[in-house]
Design a protein that fits this description.
- The protein is mostly helical.
- The termini are far apart.
- Helix content is 64%, strand content 0%.
């Protein structure tokens, strides 16, 4: 009795070959997309943390302003940035 190998080498794909092709396809296309999605999720979570921290900071600033206003203090209006060339000039009251 002879052993027949019908299909072996005749273009019939076995499950093992199909699995290897799927793995190769995943490694080339799916895995990089999954990594990119995970990176985007990490960034989104970091932004949520920053947003929560900023909200806490703003709440704290508002609470301090309320206390100062309660005792009659008024806000000091001054520009946040001064012109460096004026501040650093010889005749602007500096050395």
């Amino acid at each position: 009795m002879a052993v027949s190998s019908v299909g072996a080498g005749a273009g019939v794909l076995t499950q093992d070959i199909l699995d290897k092709l799927r793995e190769a396809d995943d490694a080339q296309y799916v895995t990089p997309l999954k990594l990119e999605l995970a990176d985007q999720d990490d960034r989104k979570n970091a932004l949520k943390t920053i947003d929560a921290s900023m909200t806490n900071l703003i709440d704290s600033i508002n609470a301090l302003k309320d206390v100062f206003e309660l005792y009659g203090y008024s806000p000091l209006e001054t520009p946040a940035f001064e012109r460096y060339d004026i501040l650093a000039s010889k005749y602007a009251g500096g050395a």
